[in-house]
Write a structure and sequence with these properties.
This protein has 2 helices and 4 strands, in the order E-H-E-E-H-E. By secondary structure, the chain is of the alpha+beta class.
Length: about 70
C-alpha cells in the first residue's frame, strides 16, 4: 500500500527527527520525502493502512501533515 501526504517538512534535520519515529513502526516498508515538491510530499509504503498513525506522528513533532488521495 502506498500512502501520500502533503507536509511542511523542509530539511534533512527535520527528516532525521521523523525517521526515529518511523523506525518503530513495523508496518512501514519504505518511505521518502520529496523536498523539491511545493507540497513537500511524503510517500510511505506499508503493509497496511496506517495513515492516521503517520499523521499523528508528524503532528506530534510539530509538522503539518495531510493525506492526499
Amino acid at each position: 500500500m502506498i500512502l501520500v501526504f502533503k507536509t511542511n517538512v523542509r530539511n534533512k534535520k527535520q527528516i532525521e527527527k521523523i525517521a526515529n519515529h518511523f523506525k518503530k513502526i513495523t508496518a512501514i516498508t519504505r518511505w521518502n520525502f520529496d523536498l523539491s515538491d511545493v507540497d513537500k510530499i511524503l510517500r510511505v509504503e506499508s503493509v497496511s493502512n496506517i495513515s492516521d498513525r503517520i499523521i499523528t506522528t508528524l503532528i506530534s513533532d510539530g509538522f503539518h501533515c495531510e493525506e492526499l488521495y
